[in-house]
Amino acid sequence: MSGMNRRGLLAGAGALFLSGCGKVADSAAGRSAFEAAQRLHQGAQRALGGGGLVKEYAPSEISPYFRGNGSVDPQNGDYQAQAAAGFTNWRLQVGGLVERPLSFALEEIRRLPQRTQITRHDCVEGWSAIGQWTGPQLSVLLEAAGLRDGARFIVFRCADNLNGQDYYESVDLDDAFHPQTIVAHALNGEPLPIRNGAPLRMRIERQLGYKHAKYLTGIEAVASLDTIGEGKGGYWEDRSDYQWYAGI
Amino acid sequence: MDKTKRHRLSTRAWHWINLLCVVILFMSGLNISNAHRFLYWGDYGFQPSEAWLVVPRFPAWATIPDFYDLAQARDWHNLFAWPFALVLLFMWAAMIFNGHFWRDIRTRRREWRLASIAEDIKAHLRLNFGHSPGKYNFLQKLSYGIVFGVLLPGMVLTGLAISPGMGPSYLWMIELMGGRQSARSFHFIFAWALFAFFVVHVLLVILAGPYRQIRSMITGAPLDKDAPTAQQEART
Description:
heterodimer; A: alpha+beta; Sulfite Oxidase, Chain A, domain 2; 4-stranded antiparallel β-sheet; B: mainly alpha; Fumarate Reductase Cytochrome B subunit
């Protein structure tokens, strides 16, 4: 066989393999295998972690700059006007399957018991940054509102509209009630910069960055994610099939 | 074990399942690498100026899927991580219990003498691969030992260290590796070391007679009459 033919054969076999991978990924069986693997990772990580805390760093380990990704300066709605007014009219709604729907002004969020933590933020792309976050634990807000029976997920509603769709995210109750899950209003002791989600953002410390919803306007307890957005539990999940469980 | 075969069924099954897993993990890993082509040491890093290495962008034909799609590449990567780790665990258990590790892969002190290592290298350069009394010669034992003992388990351990969900339970290992970004760098280095092994391995199989070599890894192949059996070797 000539070198040319052999190379042709190799290239052909490679192309066949790749197109086979594409067919598997597009098939229902392929998708359910991917989802089963995710659930296995989630189950294993939760079983091993047992609700424990992630590492909290020393102030000297904070990164000199905290990169922003996704929306870094929302232009939709009245966000820019709110920013110009110092977010004095910003409201955070807590609703859905709760006993007492609540609405908080920023000042009220700051008066709740606070948690400050220096943690590492891991982006799905691969980079990491370390910052100090301050805010009330999500559990404090959820306990104030009182979850009703049947609530299984917490949905985070956001002010930013990215590529024509409103950003949102969701977690299960295990992450919602984790002690390090906080509604942050400050980064490194200062009010959140706009690129990092001003005036409020979530910290979901055991998952990748896209779960940490920024520009937070609403916290909603739901029984199912099927009717929220396109049903996959988040902006990137709906748009690009990102994994809903982002602990890997 | 069937003592008339060159390779046990456990070895052959592991070999081909592992190959499939490694190919898919490597190629989906190249797709993931394209998402952020900078490697750092320590816990954090996000800008090129902090990077110790700027990784080239890998072409679409080398990645799974064969276009840039971080979400789908992660699906492949996260799925095949399971069989990869589980068959590696199985192979280690099999090697320990059936004696393959102790008999064929473990090196002996006398093999570490410079003169005998030099002899082995010279024999390789002469493309003489049948020169060792045991199943594998010293360089084979060394490279299989590094692959089994460091690179393959290293891929699993560094992969776990990159996962934020492992943060609470795995901190000691992340710290041992020097932080999350160091673990990510090691993940990349080990992957390319495995690729280097793959290239040399395939090259040597081709030089040593690909038909016989590949057949024996599929069927097990009867032992050559002249070659020492595992039992004979164990007695020496």
